[in-house]
Amino acid sequence: RINKCKCMKTLAVILHHNTVQHTETLYELLEPEQKSGDYHLMVLDNGSDQGKESKYASMRLDQNVYFGGALDVMSRFLCEEGEEYDSLLWLNNDIIVGKNFVKSLRKECLVNGWNVISPCIIQPEKTQNHWQQMLNWGTNQTREVRWIDLQTPMISKKLIKYLYDNRTTPENVIDMSLLYGWGIDIYLGVICESQGWKTGVCDYVPAIHLGSMTLKSLNNTNEYCQNAEKGQYEFFQKINKMNEFIEMRQWAENYEG
Prior knowledge:
Blueprint: E1 9-16, H1 20-30, H2 34-37, E2 39-46, E3 57-61, H3 66-80, E4 85-92, E5 95-97, H4 101-112, E6 114-122, E7 142-144, E8 154-156, H5 157-165, H6 184-195, E9 198-209, H7 213-217, H8 221-238, H9 242-253
Parallel strand pairs: 1-2, 1-4, 2-3, 6-9
Antiparallel strand pairs: 4-8, 5-9, 6-8, 7-9
């Protein structure tokens, strides 16, 4: 069980499924800075196979509910039980970050009022980063953008509470059409624009993303991507935001800083 405290913190969650080495490396990198960085670090085991669970997991799901399902679980927790947290840092396990990573993002988020913020993303695979706004554009500041790819986002509780209060079904904060994770990023961007909230990418806080290691470990990459693509189209059609969805994607493909 997560320990309670009176001070407001970021809940930093590493999403784990089977790829133990990546999860434990990231956990051991971030764990020593919890107290000084005003965050609580936990590992959510997303239905790992027997023998591939993380020894650091403090919450375990019986089956793999994928990226969107796991984010749904933690969003509900934050709204229903996480009164001591003011933000959620949602961490893919296959990232490498530097010293004071969480502290730096949190400070930027609080001081300058970002509702969603991401580090700039450095990716070793040439074809990996499709969305140009996520790159490091050398500004040494946080760039305001229309939406961020959710590789390691810090999301304000205000935005998560908005999702909770406006959920499409009583059971789910994240619509199950978005189970595989694609489309949640643009949906958050659409919400932030409609509410006048700020979304940013921080060029002075980088993260290296090793290339969807968990997805590759599933050995069904093509099927996963097909389901994810289908789900996001179904979702935006259902909420009558297909034009906004298409326009947001085009904006990101053509972003020039």
